[in-house]
UniProtKB/TrEMBL annotation:
A Pfam family per the record: DNA_processg_A
GO BP terms: DNA-mediated transformation
Protein name: DNA processing protein
Top-level division of the source organism's lineage: Bacteria
Biological source species: Modestobacter versicolor
């Protein structure tokens, strides 16, 4: 990294990342006010404000920050802190704004698993720069118990976005998360997995090979130091980070009670774009997506393609999706008179132009003018005694003899 924090700052933030569970707004405010080094010293000595000290508890007596940094180095990881150039300050600024709006009184504050609070530090594993990868990124999230439909569309969206130079961010879990990561990798694009455990651990264990591939093109990111276990509450806490690191969140497939819905709600609360992909109305795995789309207050956008996603998160006026393609027809180019003459033509027996003019309500000269055009498109044919509609089973370009 071009500009790095001092060793004392890095040690202090490494200690804080283990001593304090992420999402604690009182601790974040204390660190903002006195700085990470002084906050570390005060908490270690038991001299921090009581409300802050209580959030650290027995962990104040432990200090394995140097060991955490060494363990990270051994697995190819590093600690990225706000004092580093690599820190995605602009991207995470939405969390800073949200944190300032959280009430000061503890009883009025949201639960820590839902609080929109900036991270104190991020453990990052991989060779790419964190700020570089998340600058143009989209989150794809969804159910772990996904269907084949959900996995297919997640992979297609991720592949399409990856081909257009966008980074895919997800949680590395079973189902939609894994499909999104694989879709991005299939396009040769970077992808970021935001974990609820240490970056030295593969969770789920069966995704060891997937995480190895992710590291070839992208990053593993976590707020927890190496060795930390994937506790249940940590998945809820990390959802805000997935939402904050990206320009928008796409909920691909989600049941009525799904962590993916929580990520979408965090994104909306942070002012990010929230999108949802519809599924079969008979699928329980799409109930959550449909509920999001029905919630008019949250202004969730329905998307079906990568181009439609980019229309929401891309550059204004530059990343517009093309209108949906529809099959062309020879009828599209016909004039009003030609359409009326075609409608006047009988199906079985041919009639002369004079009869067609009477039925179509136009002059005979107009009929004679449009009949060659209709014949060119194989819409009408001459029977020897008059004109009729070309039979539908007639091979194109064939004329009766």
């Amino acid at each position: 990294m071009s500009a790095a924090a001092g060793w004392d700052v890095r040690l202090a933030r490494a200690w804080l990342s283990r001593a304090v569970e992420p999402g604690s707004v009182d601790v974040w405010r204390f660190v903002q006010r006195v700085g990470p080094v002084d906050a570390h010293r005060a908490l270690r000595r038991g001299e921090a404000p009581p409300a802050v000290q209580a959030l650290v508890g027995k962990r104040a007596a432990e200090d394995v920050s140097a060991d955490d940094l060494l363990r990270a180095e051994r697995c190819g990881a590093r600690l990225v802190v706000p004092e580093d150039d690599e820190w995605p300050a602009l991207t995470l600024h939405c969390l800073t704004l949200a944190a300032h709006d959280i009430p000061v009184e503890r009883r009025d504050q949201p639960d820590r698993t839902q609080a929109l609070v900036p991270p104190l530090a991020l453990w990052v594993r991989g060779d790419r720069g964190l700020d570089e990868l998340v600058d143009r990124s989209v989150a794809l999230v969804g159910s772990r118990a996904s269907t084949a439909y959900g996995e297919h569309v997640a992979a297609e969206l991720a592949h399409g976005l990856g081909e257009r130079g966008w980074t895919i961010v997800s949680g590395g879990a079973f189902g939609i998360d894994a499909a999104a990561h694989r879709g991005a990798l299939a396009a040769g694009a970077p992808t970021v997995a935001v974990l609820a455990c240490g970056v030295d651990r593969a969770y789920p264990h069966s995704h060891s090979a997937l995480f190895h591939r992710v590291l070839e093109e992208g990053l593993l990111v976590s707020e927890w130091p190496p060795g930390c276990a994937p506790l249940r509450h940590r998945f809820l806490v990390r959802n805000r980070l997935i939402a904050a690191l990206t320009r928008g969140t796409v909920v691909v497939e989600a049941a009525a009670r799904s962590g993916a819905l929580a990520t979408g709600k965090r994104a909306r609360d942070l002012g990010r774009q929230v999108m949802a992909l519809p599924g079969p109305v008979t699928s329980a795995m799409s109930v959550g997506c449909h509920e999001l789309l029905r919630d008019t207050e949250r202004q969730v956008t329905l998307v079906t393609t990568a181009a439609e996603v980019l229309q929401q998160v891309g550059r204004l006026g530059a990343d517009l999706a093309d209108p949906a393609a529809r099959p062309g027809s020879a009828l599209d180019s016909l004039s009003d008179v030609a359409r009326r003459v075609l409608d006047a033509c009988p199906v079985r027996t041919g009639v002369p132009p004079e009869r067609l003019a009477t039925i179509a309500g136009c002059e005979v000269v107009d009929v004679l003018r449009v009949l060659p055009v209709l014949e060119l498109h194989d819409l009408v044919e001459w029977t020897g005694t008059g004109w009729r509609v070309t039979p539908p089973d007639r091979p194109r370009g064939r004329r009766p003899r």
